Amino acid sequence: MIKSFCKYFAFLIFTFGYWGVNTSSAQDVLQIPHSLVFVGDELTITGNAMLSVTGAKLNQNSISTQLLNFVSDNEARFVLPNSIKKGSYELVLFRGTTAGNNLSFTVTGPLILAVEPQAFEIDDVITITTQRLDSVVHIKVGNANADLKTVSLIDGTKKFSFKVPALNSLGEKSLFISGIYDQTDTVEVSVTGLNTPLIDNISPAAARPGNRVTISGKNFESITGVAFGNTAASLGSIFFINNDTFYMNVPETVKGTIFVTVYTSRGESNFFTFNIIGNLPTINDFSPKEASVGDEITVSGSGLSLISAVVLNGVTIAGIQKFSPESFSFIIPNEAQSGIPTAIIDGQSFDMKSVLSVNTVTSIRNNVVSIDPNMLTVVRYDEYTYALAAKKHFNNVLQIEIYDMLGRKSLDRQIFLGEKFVMKECSILIIKNQKVEEEGIYRIKLCP
Predict the structure, then answer these.
(1) pLDDT at residue 267 above 50?
(2) What's the number of domains the chain is made of?
């Protein structure tokens, strides 16, 4: 009898151990659908033996497993109940008496994403865009409650509008909204006076002094002034499109972020943030004033860091080098001709006022080409090989320099008359006459 009982008890232990629930701590993983969690969101939980879950606790309080939708033995879904409040939570699943690991998440309020416009008058209708807001139950501007009868849903739980209530004072106010299930959020807005000017937008959002910008909003009739920071703009540059939109030139003012304010006979507008890129570029000088193809020209001035190109007699030179706020340089290209250079800085054109004289050079295409028939001759032996010949009053040895078309020196040495030298790409050859100084320097472009 005792033996039979022991065998039966051992069988029960084996059966429960083999077919029963694994009581070791399960490693559950919570997958949040997005960075913000709201009432009604569905959270995915992955792990082992999900079909063996017998209970669950949320912040130490037992909840019904009916809130869990078991998809498979490795996955379950948890839908946040309507009763949940904003805050931090820990969810634990139980398999028998064994607790799984803590699954942490935070329930967030509606999070106001945008208020349009950011500044408005009493009785204006404004639009609120939220991450999510279920059933608006309270709106307050400053200390005044908005009439919920003026609320109009535009995009389900994402966007709605309402009418601004009457206020005892104007200026910066806190806009508070809340929905059911303790969803709340607050942002700062600006309430202006009745028929006072209001800036909704300035386009572009950043510009240089002298650039034209468009200011839009409302109540801009009878403008008495426009201020960019502490600098008053010229009213003579204002051009009205209508009473709600005008454009004008940005005045000379300090660089950086400033506030723009419009003044009319009815009052002043809200402060609108604007960015001054920098003072108007100024070109003081360039050198040298006379040069040849491949030479480098250096330009000096201020506000030059946004240089993008130079135009010389219709030829655009885009290869700007060594640029800084005070200077930049460029290389004279093959097709350049004499003229007044124009710098293109931040999309605007700035003439350099003085003429840049470009010396014309000759390409060698024949076997014998004269730089000066009475003085010096370049002889071509093959595609890449050249030599120099000269009249007897030249030194037997000449100093030559060779530059590529970007102005980089590739050779600088003495060479005997008749000695062969090689150039495998278009280059500028400079020959210095050391004896007859009045002949100066000879330049020629060599192209294989």
Answers:
(1) yes
(2) 5
